[in-house]
Amino acid sequence: MTAEELEGALGVLPRTSYAYTPTPLEECPRLSQALGGPRILIKRDDLTGLAFGGNKARHMEFRIGDAMAKGCDMFINTNHWVSNNARFIAAACAKVGMKYIFVARGTKERPFKGNLLLQHLLGATFHYLESYNRDEADAYCRKLAEKARKDGYTPYVSSDEPLNHYAGTLGYMECALELAQQVQSQAIPVTKIFLVAGSSMAGILLGSKLVGLPWEVTGVWAGDRENVEEQIVSYSRQCQKLLELPSSIEPNEANVLFGYVGEGYTIPTPECIEAIQLVARTEAIILDPNYTGKAMAAMLDHIRKGMITSRDTVVFIHTGGTPELFSHADSLVV
């Protein structure tokens, strides 16, 4: 499959325009020097421009496009209280004038800072659940949708929409093509890609496979979801079916590292904190403690153990998440 054919397949889907793309591909010479090689570049998807930026800007183009194509005027979403995804939905809805309701799981006595604060500023309506249980939250969202319909709204219940699960894969197939153009135009011999494991990784992996890019893609589990390898395969198969693609990701192609999550999701490890500080102090690039800090810690560990050598050229995809940095100030000041 050619890049043009993949672009054409993606181009038929309903979408809105949010992300400032192409995002920069930034050389990191001081970080490389501090580690004794390899050549390191960071794909700055933290600079996508929507409400502090991040990977979800690419996702939202398809999700809000789908909601608008279905005539919806309300978006109902549930997620963990620290959710970057929820922040992006609030921002995307504000841009198109769509009412947004966020059912926040695990929010008992949580302070309004980080992503919760930004959603408040963006006009979200909040419903707080003490439980973290997804099924309970999904049922709560459906009850809200029933009431909304009686009130004359046409709600888009995110957790019941298939695109909720694989919009990120669609967006990051396009990102794979964008990255390929950047490295080819600069004759950069990329061998390895590191990023957080999830739907964005699925898009990079599937996009690069479809157009024959020789990249070794590694995802790092942040502890935010179970069965992430199975989900990556599932996302790719759903995209294959939707776009009638010639192939999808096979189970043995999803290379995910599980040893860097530490005590759990949203709890930064010492290695994560060290990675955040090192990248900030060598390249003035700010990572986050929930996702990209842990992914960078994994990449640094592989470099220090010689699994990535001075002969390699590695691209780290910075998927954003920086608003939650301020929720971890006490942990980061060490």
What's the number of helices? 12
Number of separate structural domains: 2
Distance between the amino and carboxyl termini? 49 Å
Quaternary class: single chain
Rg, nearest Å = 19 Å
- Fraction of helical residues: 40-55%
Blueprint (SSEs and pairs):
Layout: H1 3-11, E1 25-27, H2 29-34, E2 39-44, H3 56-69, E3 74-80, H4 84-96, E4 99-105, H5 115-121, E5 125-129, H6 134-150, E6 155-157, H7 163-185, E7 192-196, H8 199-210, E8 216-220, H9 228-243, E9 255-257, H10 270-283, H11 292-304, E10 313-318, H12 329-332
Parallel strand pairs: 2-10, 3-4, 3-6, 4-5, 7-8, 7-10, 8-9
Antiparallel strand pairs: 1-2
Helix pairs in contact: 1-7, 3-4, 3-7, 4-5, 7-8, 7-9, 8-9, 10-11
Explain how this protein is built.
This protein has 334 residues and is an alpha/beta fold. It folds into two domains: 222 residues, Rossmann fold (3-Layer(aba) Sandwich); 106 residues, Rossmann fold. 44% of the residues lie in helices and 15% in strands. It contains twelve helices and ten strands. A six-stranded mixed beta sheet has the order 1-2-10-7-8-9. Strands 5-4-3-6 form a four-stranded parallel beta sheet, sandwiched between helices. Helix 5 links the parallel strand 4 and strand 5. Helix 8 crosses helix 9. The longest helix has 23 residues. The termini are far apart. 46% of the residues are buried.
